[in-house]
Amino acid sequence: MSVPATPRGAAAPPGQPRKAATAAWIGSALEYYDFFIYGSAAALIFPEVFFDESDPATATLLSLATFGVAYAARPVGALVLGHFGDKLGRKKIMVFTLMLMGLSTFLIGCLPTRDQVGTLAPVLLVLCRVLQGISAAGEQASANSMTLEHAPPGRRGFFTSFTLSGTQGGQLLATLVFIPVAAMPEDQLLSWGWRVPFWLSVAVAVVGYVIRRKLDETPAFAQQAAEQGVVKMPLVVLLREHWADVLRVIAGALIASVSTIFTVWALAYATSDAVGMSRTAMLWVGALANLVALAAIPLWATLSDRIGRRPVYLIGAAGSAVTMFLYLWAVSTGSYPLTFALGILCFGVVYSAANGVWPAFYGEMFTTRVRLSGVAIGTQIGFAAAGFAVTFAARIAGPGGDDWSAVALFTAALCVPPVIAALSARETHRVPTEALGVRPVRATTEPEKVTA
Description:
Blueprint: H1 16-44, H2 46-49, H3 56-88, H4 90-108, H5 114-117, H6 120-150, H7 156-182, H8 186-191, H9 196-199, H10 202-212, H11 219-228, H12 234-241, H13 243-253, H14 256-270, H15 279-307, H16 309-333, H17 336-363, H18 371-396, H19 404-414, H20 416-424
Helix pairs in contact: 1-3, 1-4, 1-6, 1-7, 1-10, 1-14, 3-4, 3-6, 3-18, 4-6, 4-10, 6-7, 6-18, 7-15, 7-17, 13-18, 13-20, 14-15, 14-16, 14-17, 14-18, 15-16, 15-17, 16-17, 16-19, 16-20, 18-19
């Protein structure tokens, strides 16, 4: 591989930080639109389309389990895509992941139903979901590495937050698309209406390619490749030099359980016979919460550039444990005003503190030569557990699926490892980019020369 040499400590060309952040935002939005329309469909549509309608509770459980399958595939995707991302560069992985996600999601919209092909239908559904998981495994890590390594000094938190605000934008778009779909007459919804959001994903491949193909490789990666060469086996170096940080990222990534419980389980619970809230109203809760998150994420990230990653992350992790309990309680009452208010507070405001900061917080734990592998592998193992949190929640909720307090306590317990991980991590918001992951460095805003 040929990588142009870059002088030590060289900054990104003018305009590249903003261009990288924009590419990360739009790409992540399009990618996670695909990923989250599956979550809405798994909660509202797939139990009737792909599973046995004679046992609704089991059908819902199996449908939610397919949502978690993608998270199980993500660690495998992280190993492969992290390896190539640290060898070939961030840009190539960013383009590949969008193309794969667009294709796999479009295919889901083309699948035959259980009535048409029997048990082959859920098998094909799971295979497509695995491809979605592999794609998502490389998307955030490559976009985070791209934006972090392009970011100017003192603003890494702000620029890397665009990846996660893009994720929330994709979730918002997925919800808005599903609102009119869910309002369709039942026969049209189950026959063809549910397929439309998946077919729209063909735009992902086109738009993603146009946006990302002209993006420059990061100065940090080019410099490292020119001076030291790329690492032949990033995983070996990662586990030898950064094993403790990988464990921290795995523990920290469990905070994503808040997102999956909010997005999938709470939606299924609220619209079940136990509560009886309308599909459209609950989809609007998610839409408004994500709209607030779009503003909250960069604000929290900017705050972390000033006071540090750890305090902001801890607000999000600890606060989510409390506010998720309040949100699920509100849903259990059937009160729309309470549900809207506490849903926005929980997911839109408090969870955004951890969600907006982790791209910089995790990425700053690693050196450039293994950053993409470290973030990808650490987050995707943690996200795998978070994905199956929905399945466990369905079990914990009992036969009637209405024990919301048990699910709230379960979610709170999953917020404890992220708190411990943050408390044990170094504060890195003032460490120069070229010194990240090398050794503990005295806080400074001036670049330090680090020997290779």
